[in-house]
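=== RUN LOG ===
request id: a7f3
mode: sequence -> structure
chains: 1
length: 118
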Amino acid sequence: MRCARARTELRGQAGLEQSARMEADRRTTPRALRRLRLLVGGDTAFTADVTANGFCVETPRLAQPGTSISGTITVGDREFSFTGMVCWTSGDDPQHGRMGVRFLEVSREFHLEFASLL
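=== RESULT ===
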């Protein structure tokens, strides 16, 4: 009980201020609100937004944060292979929600194509 109470107290005012700073500093590259097609594990999904460092995907299958995923992302008429790590998930329904994925590997050509979206 003491640990839970201590964690709650730490999350108080100082925790909120730190969280706000981290939220503001978290994204270091421009975000494009684009609906791009993804193919991951045989499932088709679509992005809600994309940055040079990753994407937010609306998906019928949520993976746990820390899970490595790979697939393809389509920009225009070109497909680019990627490997990424799930950083966060959102959704009460395990059959539908959003995931934030950070690229671990993606081609230089994707970055050039992505720049044209901005």
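=== NOTES ===
The chain has a mean pLDDT of 78.
Strands lie at 37-40, 43-51, 54-59, 68-75, 78-90, 97-106.
=== END ===
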